[in-house]
Amino acid sequence: MFFIPGIVITVLTFPGVIVHEAGHLFFCRLFGLQVYNVCFFQFKNPAGYVVHENSDNFTAQFFVSMGPFISNTVLCVLFCTAAFLPVWELKIADPLAYFFYWLGISIGMHAFPSTTDLKHLWERAPALAKKGNLLAILSLPLAGILVVLNYGRIVWADLGYGILVGVLGPIAIFKALVR
Amino acid sequence: MRQVSCSRCKASFPLRSTLSLNEQTYCENCAPTIARESKETGQAAVFTRNIDGSLCALCGTENPSGSDFAFRKKLPFCEKCGPLVERWPYPVWLKLSLAGLVLLLAASLLHGRRYFHAGSEMYRGEGLVKQAKYAEAVPHLTEAVRIAPGSDKAVLLLAKAALKTGDVQTAAKALQGHEEGRFENGQDEDFLEMKALWDRATTAAKKANEAGKLALEGAKDVEAAKLFREAAAEYPESKEMTAAVPYFDEGAAFEQKDYDRFLALAQEVFAKKPNATNAATIASAWACKYAVSGNAHFKNEAEQFLLKAQQMPQSDTEETKQMEEYVPRIRHRIDSRQIITKQEYDKRFRSAEKGKK
Questions:
Q1: What are the backbone dihedrals phi and psi of residue A58, each rounded to the nearest 5 degrees, phi first?
Q2: A86/B58 CB distance under 8 A
Q3: N or C: which end of chain A has fewer CB within 10 A?
Q4: What ipTM did this prediction achieve?
Q5: In whole angstroms, what is the distance from residue A98 CA to residue A87 CA?
Q6: Interchain contact A57–B (C-beta under 8 A)
Q7: pLDDT digit string, tens, across residues B165-222
Q8: Does the beta-carbon distance from B122 to A97 stay under 8 Å?
C-alpha cells in the first residue's frame, strides 16, 4: 500500500478546483449575494473557497451550494464524452483524448459541495420540505448522499465519482443517440 | 475607530471587536464566561457581533469623516469595497481560462467527430448483433474497425457478425488487424463465443479444403462428399458451404454410378442457380443415363441441355474455361455412350493434344 497526499491529487486536478469556485462565485453573483473573499486555488487545505453572505432565500442557498456540483458534473460529462470513445471503447492512443479525459475527470472529482455548504442546506431543508418546497424536497436526499460521499473522500469517493460520471455519462449519451 | 466599555470587565475595546447580548456589550474575553453562566441558568446565549459603521467591514479602513460608511445590506463598506462585495469581479485570468475551457470543449467535440462516427457505428452494429441481424451489422462494424482496429469490442463484434454470416475472410482480416489476434481478456464471454465460432469455421474450412483436394484427385468423390458434408454441418452459418454440398453429392452419385440421383441433384442445383455450368451438368447426367440405357429420350434430353448450356451467357472467364473443358466430355459421352472420368478423358484425349502443341 502507498499513500498519496490529498494535496498532490488536488494539484494534479487543479482545473476542477477552479471550476468549482468559479461556480460558487457565479451563483453568488446571480442571486446578488455579497462576496467577501475568493480563492480559486491554493496549495493547502481547502484548495479553494468563496466567502459569501448567508442568504435567507433557500433557492439562492441551494444553487450557491449545489451549483458547482451541477456545473462540474455537466462539464465532466461533456469533456469525457468527447474523449470516452477513444480512451475506453475504441482503444485509440490519442494524447489529446487522454488530455480531455484528464480534464473531465479533474472537474468531475471536485464536484462535491463542501460539508459546510451541505450543512446549511441540511439545516433549512426539512422545514421547507414540509411546506412543499420542491428544491428543499430534492435537496434532502441529495445532501444526504453528498454528506456520506464527502466522508468517503478518505477512500477516494470524489475520484470514484469523477470516473463514474466520466464513464456512465458518455455511455448513456451514446446509447440514447444511437437509439 | 469607536471604543466601548465591556459591561463585565469595564475595560475599553474597539467596538467592532465586541459582542452584544441582551443589550449589553461584552469583550471577547468575557463573552465565554457569560455564555457559560447563561447555560447554567438554562438560557441560550446568542451573541451578535457589534458593527462599527465608521470602519469598512472588508478592508477595515476608517471613514476619515468619522461618520458611518453607507451600509450595504447589514454591513458598512467603504466606496472601494462596496461595489466589490456586491459584484465580486471575475479575474481576467479566470475569464480567459473559462473562454479557453469553452474553446477546448468545442475543440474536443470537433476532435472527437471521427470517434463519434466510429462509436455510433459500433453501437449500431452492437444493437443489430443483439437482434441477430448479423448481415446488417457487418458494414457498421467494418466501418468502426476501420477507424479503431485496436478496439477489442468492435473487432469481436465484427468477427462474430461476420462468422455468423459465414464470412470468414472479413472475420480473419479484423482479427489479424487487431494486435495480431491478441485480446486483453481471454476469458471474456464475447471473446470465448467468437473463438468457438472461429474454431468451428476454421475446422470446417480445413475439411472443405481437403474435400476439394480429394475431388480433384478423382475416384474419391464419395469420400470428398462425406468430408464436405461434415464441413458444412460443422459451420452451417456458411451459406456458400451449404450451397456447395449438392455439387459434391453430384460427384459422389456419379462415382457410385447412381445416375438417377446425379440427375435429380443436377436439376435441383439448376433450379436454384440456372447458369451454363449447371445446365451442362444436367446434360452430363442425361448423357450418363443414355450411355447405360441407350434410351433415345435420354439422348434427346442430353442434347437439348447441352445446347441450352452453350447458349446461356457465361458469367466470367472462369465459367467459360469450365464450359470449354466440360462440353467436349459430355459430347464424347453422348457420341460414344462411354462414361469415363475427367482424369481418364484427359489421359486419352488431352495429353495427346498437349503433346502436339
A1: -65, -35
A2: no
A3: N
A4: 0.87
A5: 7
A6: no
A7: 999 999 999 988 887 777 877 778 888 999 999 999 999 999 999 999 998 887 788 9
A8: no
